[in-house]
Amino acid sequence: MIKVAPSLLSADFKNIEREIKRVERCKVDLLHLDVMDGHFVPNITFGPMIVEAINRCTQLPLDVHLMVEAPDSFVESFVKSGADWLTVSYETCRHLHRTINLIKSFKINAGCALNPATPFCLIEPALEELDLLLLMTVNPGFGGQKFIPSVLSKIEEAKRFIQRHKLKTKIEVDGGINPQIAKLVKKAGANILVAGDAVFKSKNYCRTIKALKES
Ligand code: DX5
Ligand code: ZN
Questions:
Q1: Domain spans of the chain, in order of start
Q2: For residue 168, what pLDDT band results from cuts at 50, 70 and 90?
């Protein structure tokens, strides 16, 4: 069964606890938290202090997506703030194995994200170390952008590689995912769908989440 991770970026931050409770009731699997530094991406969101506060509002596993330069120096503070899954952006890592090992030394799940223009082959040497491969389906930085269809073949390529090498790595997709697009990415091989606007800008969160799962 496909998993759904609502991205809090699209939620009403004035009522963040209420928003979390509203998605919790819909049997979501993870809560996706987008951390942006204004350098790697042209937007700034929040840091470990807010992640820690969010962690106190929910039992859901926290899927923390770091879009920050030099992520190694932040790993420990996000682990302490409650991250269950911690994903770094491939394009920010000079020594990827070192970063992955650092995350895994805290006994949490390690992920790596690829921008839409970054080819899959670049992550192949590290894939068996990863719990999660996050394939960005928009250029990171903002919610509500349009899905980039050329990533579909990258999802298929990743799926084939994972099957061929009998790896346990999960494929997560992030950006512009709605129930129509969900059908395509699921068919291509995605295991986890991140959805921001599709969930939080919809009238009925549970209906949208159900549609994402059943699409
Ligand atoms: C974009 C973020 C996404 C974003 C997705 O940089 O990584 O998680 O919140 O939002 P939607 O689903 O609205 O594209
Ligand atoms: Zn994200």
A1: 3-213
A2: very high
Q: How far is the CA of 184 from the centre of ligand 2 (A)?
A: 19
Provide the CA 163 distance to its chain's centre, in angstroms: 21
Ligand that lies nearest to the alpha carbon of residue 7, given by its number in the listed order? 1
Superfamily grouping for domain 3-213: Aldolase class I (3.20.20.70)
What's residue 215's pLDDT? Answer: 86
Span from the CA of 80 to the centroid of ligand 1 (angstroms):
24
Q: In what order do the strands lie in the sheet with 31-36?
A: 3-6, 192-195, 170-174, 132-136, 109-114, 85-89, 62-67, 31-36
* Mean pLDDT across the chain: 98
pLDDT tens, 46-57? Answer: 999 999 999 999
The residue whose CA has the least distance to atom 7 of ligand 1 is 140
Which pTM does this prediction carry? 0.98
